[in-house]
Amino acid sequence: MSTIVQEQAWCASTPKRTPAAEPHAAGLKSVGSALDVLECFATDGELGVSDIARRLGVAKSTAHRLLQTLASRGFVEQDAQGQYRLGIHVYELGALALARNELRHVALPFLRQVAAATGLTVNLSVPDGADIVFVERIENSDGVRILGHFGRRLPAHTTSSGKAIAAWNTDLDAARRRAGFPPRVSRTVRAEPDWDRTLDGVRRVGYAVSHSESFDGASSVAVPVMLHRQAVASVSVFGPSEVIEPQVERLVPVLLAASRRIALAHGR
Fold it and tell me: Which whole number is the average pLDDT over 131-152?
């Protein structure tokens, strides 16, 4: 499968968020339209007025007004060529959201311990819809090399983190089944029977692995963070397959210890 097809599959699995019901008031529709504009930048760094108008199915004049309103508040910014990109205020709000995330704050010292003990890239992930989002990542050089500038969201079925959470989180499991299993790379789970077998295996051994399922040649190992018998997050290590695969049995106890400490500290 080509890289283009893989990226399209990834984008299709992370759809624009939509409200449960369409707002009727004109003001609320404007708010929704402005948020739709911001969602367009989830998969593209820079877009023009025509790009936004086409994606939203609105007139160019409407797209221009929306972009200008967002620019006036710092949510988007325009370059000399007239292209728009996300503004610094989005970064500020995102940084605040992370800084105020209690689970991330509690987990951080334990993630650092895992990074020091393993020398690998360490992730803390949480479920969101049919995907998982990496709310903290401590990278080593291998992680930087493989991930590059890749974002913080992946479909749950392509990652050890998603598997580890979905095995004990019915909401994530159900959302992933509804969204389907689009392929990403060579060994991605592609069908519901495979997903069933995968989650059964995770429940049996207590951890999840991923080999060439999110990135070819890369592997990860994850364990769930359990609160009240439900997985609310996962801790994972990530790196080249030739580094991870021989160490799985050594890595799992390190991850389990960190997971239990995070759950204990978060539950206080």
Answer: 73
